[in-house]
Amino acid sequence: MITTAPTGLYIDGSWRPAADSGTLTVEDPATGQVIAEVADATVDDGRAAAAAAAAALPAWRERAPRERAEILRRAYELMIAAKDEIAALITAENGKTSGDAQSEVGYAAEFFRWYGEEAVRVEGHLGQAPSGDKRIIEISQPVGVALLLTPWNLPAAMITRKVAPALAAGCTVVVKPSHQTPLTALFLARLLSEAGVPDGVVNVIPTARDVAVVADLIDAGPVRALSFTGSTRVGSALLGQAAPRVLKTSMELGGNAPFIVFPDADLEAAVAGALVAKMRHNAEACTAANRFYVHASLYDAFVGRLAERLSALKVGPGTDPSSHVGPMASASARDSLTKAVRSAVDSGGRVVLGGDPQAGPGYYFPPTLIDNVPADAPVLDHELFGPVAPVVSFESEDDVISMANSTEMGLGSYLYTQDLRRGLRVAEQLEAGMVGLNTGVFSDPAAPFGGVKRSGIGREGGRHGIHEFLETKYIATQW
User: Fold this and answer.
1) Of 192, 220, 245, 428, whose CB neighbour count within 10 A is largest?
2) Residue among 150, 101, 447 nearest 280 (CA)
3) Which neighbouring-strand residues pair with 168?
4) What positions carry a catalytic annotation?
5) Burial of 314 (0-12, 13-18, 19+ CB in 10 A)
6) Residue 451, SS3 per DSSP
7) Comparing C-alpha atoms, which of 151, 163, 159 is closest to residue 229?
């Protein structure tokens, strides 16, 4: 059993069991074995967390920005100091390799540092009306209590990317982490308390009864903002629930990222970028390259080289330092990949590498490469969320732009070319919120993260992220 993280609900600065003493189990995806029992929040627990956040709001929003900033900076330092412990928790409940987990902790911690710096840079505006009859004063104020819903795939980073700007803005929060990965969230709650976050400002309520708990928090009570990271299906439903109360919402939803290799691309750089864009965080990331479009002149060379690189990756438990690919986070995630491969083959694709789940305990699926995939194959229409790479050949720039944009999703895109004019021209035409031009990684705490179309609303990270938790007030006056 995991013992380094608390297992109770964190409400108003104290650890407590669920109101009905219910618990949920946390599994190790590498073995399928239970590693912890965690309190399973009820509707009443959700209400208690929201009430605590509301009670803590007045003092926190009036706290000097510099004081809030120093607390966030301290949280960054504590998180870096506990990097190994947090990474071990991530590997235990999520399954990703220790290297990926370490990388996530570093990335996650940066949001505390970045928004510690942004907390003191919330600006207003003073101007004169064109008519000359009044002054126009604009100020930003915290929206209030924020409900933060986070997924299992980056159990640390998806929390800090929301909590940090919310606290910097002066909001208080109720965090509902995924019931698959609650241990990391609870550890971070304890860390924030140690950093000096007052009781009630951050509340964490893991629950397997999330539909009822979240619906109740949205329908009534003090919640004024909703931030969600997860599937488009769930995000769309949450927007419908939030509409009657007109909550301020931000949604980071599904992706279907194309990875385009033009004929003048540096082949080795493109293959290296593809490996990172596809396999980072066990390929279970909304930013993962999902569809590979390679120009016919480089197609065979790219497929051969990528197959060589993927075949060298060792599949094994994340706790093994020699592992490159850990287990999928759940049995359902593994099984969905099996269906996706069958669909690609039924469409005419050819499995070059992998293709079948690994036998034995744990939810393992090996790196899989499928070539000769038709441009209209159903496998290209949805997010795979795993180490399966379908490859499509293309002939012209116009054709590949059309193929890349032929989806309702628009989170991230990647393209490789040595022609800067082509790169920027295509980047502008791709219907995505983020583009990696000759790089397999574009996520950065200092940059705006988010999508277009059905991939989301709003932005996280960068200078934009704090504004998801602020409202603009206009004051008219004369002197």
Assistant:
1) 192
2) 101
3) none
4) 252, 286
5) exposed
6) coil
7) 151
Report the chain's mean pLDDT, rounded to a whole number: 97
Angle between helix 232-242 and helix 210-219 axes, rounded to 10 deg: 30
Cα 273 to the chain's mean position, in Å? 20
Identify the DSSP state of 341.
Answer: H
N-terminal to C-terminal alpha carbon distance within the chain? 67
Dihedral angle, C-alpha 355, 352, 389, 358, nearest 10 °: 20
CA distances from 324 to 143, 386, 430 (A): 42, 14, 31
Put the strands of the sheet holding 289-295 in their side by side order: 350-353, 368-371, 388-394, 289-295, 257-261, 412-416, 434-437
CA distance 273 to 131: 56
| CA gap 265, 296 in Å, rounded | 12
Q: How many CB atoms lie within 10 A of CB 343?
A: 17
Q: Is-above-0.90 flag for pTM?
A: yes
R_g (Cα) of the chain, nearest Å: 23
CA distances from 178 to 8, 181, 311 (A): 15, 5, 32
Angle between helices 157-169 and 65-81 (to 10 degrees): 160
* pLDDT tens, position by position, 105-139: 999 999 999 999 999 999 999 999 999 999 999 99
For residue 110 the two structure tokens come to 């940066």
Joined tokens for residue 11: 């409400």
pLDDT at 360: 84
SS3 450: coil
Give the ranges where 327-375 is alpha helix by DSSP (H).
Answer: 331-346
Give the tokens for residue 202: 């951050």
The three-state secondary structure class of 405 is coil
Q: What is the four-CA torsion angle of 242, 248, 252, 256, rounded to 10 degrees?
A: 70
Burial 102-115 (b: 16+ CB within 10 A, else e): bbbbebbbbbbbbb
Within 10 angstroms of residue 56's Cβ, the number of other Cβ atoms is 22
| Confidence (pLDDT) at 1 | 43
Q: How confident is the model at residue 220 (pLDDT cuts 50, 70, 90)?
A: confident
Sign of the C-alpha dihedral computed for residues 37, 42, 44 and 50 taken in this order:
positive
CA dihedral in degrees (391, 393, 397, 402; nearest 10)? -60
CB 86 within 8 A of CB 192: no
The 3-state DSSP class for residue 413 equals strand
